[in-house]
Every structure is written in structure tokens, then in C-alpha cells.
Amino acid sequence: FQYLKRFDSGCNLDTFCYEAYSVEGSPAECLQQFLLHCGIMDPSWSELRNFACFLNVQLRDCEASVFCNPDFVQDTLQGF
GO biological process annotations for this chain's record (predicted)? Predict the structure, then answer.
């Protein structure tokens, strides 16, 4: 949710890192973001859950990757 919210606001996601147990927004805002970004017109709860789990795994891997670390790559992969 935090990544999607910042993406919609036009924030630079390269420098953002999720902090465990940090809470932003309401459950309604979270659901709205998932509905906007999941890519299915009328998703079921299981489809929303699968989308959220998939996105979570991908973003966790991205944060852990040295190739996505802005301190390591600096500006060599700008926009990647």
C-alpha cells in the first residue's frame, strides 16, 4: 500500500524503504489502492490477496537486492 500510494503521488520510489509495522492510511484507502492497481475490473478477495502477496514478495526482493540500492548504483540506472 505504501509503495502504491507514493507511486500515485509521483514520489521517488528509489529512496523509499518500507519500515516493518509502520501504519499509513486507513483500511479503506488500502483497499482502494489495491482495486486501482490489481489490473482486474471486479476482483474477488482471493485475487486481491494474491495481488497483495505477489507485490509484497517482489518489493521485498527489490529492497534486498544490491542492484536496487540507490547508494550502490547511484544514478547509473536512473528510471530503471
Answer: negative regulation of non-canonical Wnt signaling pathway; sprouting angiogenesis; ubiquitin-dependent protein catabolic process
